[in-house]
Design brief:
By secondary structure, this protein is an alpha/beta fold. It contains 8 helices and 10 strands.
């Protein structure tokens, strides 16, 4: 498997850093991966899932959202809507340079983002959420101790995963303005919901909410005993292998369509 570092521009012209994993031989599909809230493309789970998919002849693009990791821009100026826009920009980059992504995978808030981005990416046949909140506003619980300051001052420095991030009122207003149930009901792609019942960050009830709201075709795979970040190597590789096995059915169906 080959790994390339590539850059592409978001809607504002800021360069976003990404890694493209290419299998040996022609890929059967290109996959777009969205990392968890305030994480980066280099989080272990994302890297291992990309490697697992590569063994199944799938190419994977994972990138740093605006203002995170090696990408340009200020994280404080981003919103949930801008993350959706970044995903669409990544899909257009893939389409221009290789092939439009047929599979979207999102981890945690990235999972909620791919649900929203899918309708703007025509080639998508399958969407996968991993430990995703049913509503982007779920992220607000991480900010509860700073909510009053954000409302009063317009922004606050919030510790997330041991690192400080500036969160502005515009971010909270934006996530609360989205209507996820309408988006999930309107999803025009096969859906795989993956979640661990031991997840202490985003409870398993979020998986139930997404699954029950979505139309068929839809599937659920338990990631027990994984934690929210799929910290153990075996958990992330298991997730990657299960995604590949599940997604191939929809890729093959597309190939056989008249």
């Amino acid at each position: 498997m080959k790994q390339q570092k590539v850059m592409f521009a978001n809607a504002r012209g800021e360069k976003l850093a990404s890694i493209l994993n290419l299998p040996d031989g022609k890929p059967i599909a290109f996959v777009l991966f969205a990392h968890c809230f305030t994480c980066t493309k280099n989080i272990t789970a994302a890297a291992n899932i990309a490697r697992a998919l590569g063994r199944w002849q799938m190419a994977v693009l994972r990138f740093d959202f605006t203002g995170l990791g090696e990408s340009m821009g200020e994280f404080a100026e981003t919103t949930f809507s801008s993350q959706i826009s970044d995903l669409v920009a990544a899909a257009r980059f893939l389409e221009a340079q290789h092939e439009a992504p047929k599979i979207l995978i999102g981890h945690s808030l990235g999972g909620t983002a791919v649900l929203h981005a899918a309708s703007q990416i025509d080639a998508v046949k399958a969407v996968v959420t991993i430990a995703a909140p049913g509503d982007p506003a779920h992220v607000a619980h991480l900010l509860r101790d700073s909510r009053e300051q954000i409302e009063r001052s317009g922004e606050a420095s919030v510790m997330i995963g041991g690192r400080p991030f500036t969160i502005r009122k515009e971010f909270i207003d934006d996530i609360e303005a989205h209507k996820p149930k309408e988006v999930i009901r309107g999803l025009n792609a096969a859906l795989l919901v993956m979640h661990s019942p031991r997840d202490r960050i985003v409870g398993i009830e979020n998986a139930s909410e997404i699954f029950q709201t979505a139309r068929h075709p839809k599937s659920f795979i338990s990631l027990d005993p994984a934690d929210h970040l799929l910290s153990r190597k075996e958990d992330s590789f298991y997730a990657g292998d299960m995604i590949a096995t599940w997604a191939r059915r929809y890729l093959e169906a597309d190939e056989k369509a008249p």
